Amino acid sequence: MTPLPARAGRRCHNALNPLHSTVYFSPDLAEELASLGVTDRNAVYLAVRSAAMGAVGPGTVTAAFYNFSHELITRHLPAVWTRVSPEEVLAARLRAADVTLRRLLGEDAIDSPELAEAAELALRATERCTRHARPLYAAHADLPVPEEPHLAYWHAATLLREHRGDGHLAALLSVGLDPLEALVSHTATGKGMNPRWILATRGWQPADWEAAEERLRERGLLTADGRLTEAGVALRAELEEQTDRLDSAPYEHLGADGVERLTELGRGFMVTAVSAGAFPEELLGKG
Asked: I need a labelling partner for 240 at 20 to 30 A (CA). Which of 31, 167, 186, 199 fits?
């Protein structure tokens, strides 16, 4: 088998993950959860992403999500499970994914052989994902694979996202970045979320953000004006390389040609979705 090019798995993940993530920003998801009595934006996200684990408490979700404030999570969990069951949330999430993908991609793409091919390749990659020490992946791996190709593709992208994400948390612990330091340093790369968006959705206060910046400065990782130092750039690179190693099995299983094809297909669907307004303009950036 031809060896994978460097960072091929990461590039494939970056092509698939945005399409998966569209559902979390979709008005269709908000409508589905509102019909079940869940209207708070943060409660929706926490319920939707944790539902595969069952009606677990805030401690479990804080551990699995890593960079959310425990205080934010305790405001919504387990209270949300008194209004709606995890099974109802999962069904609503799948309905929202269906409507969202049809709206963003169009019916021609939904019915296309390319989307069916992407679903088959992505599901094949998941055959080498592993459950141990990966709680969010393992919980989602227990869910049935939808029959429709676009939903099967979204499901496979979910599995690959959470598999890499669980490994990324292990890498964060390894390099010594706590939840907010991880967010601050990622934003400092220019590729992370806008701080205002993080504070609004992750439950942190401006003082928490400033304290994390100061800790990174004390470690020589961040400059006075909020840019990564040379050491900070090296640490973030090490973090991503560790994540790549922990997430290599699915892409090695798919092989170089399969990864290249899945990346090509995924990028096409991602560009279409982004062009259709899948994400809010204020999501990314340092401002």
From this structure: 199
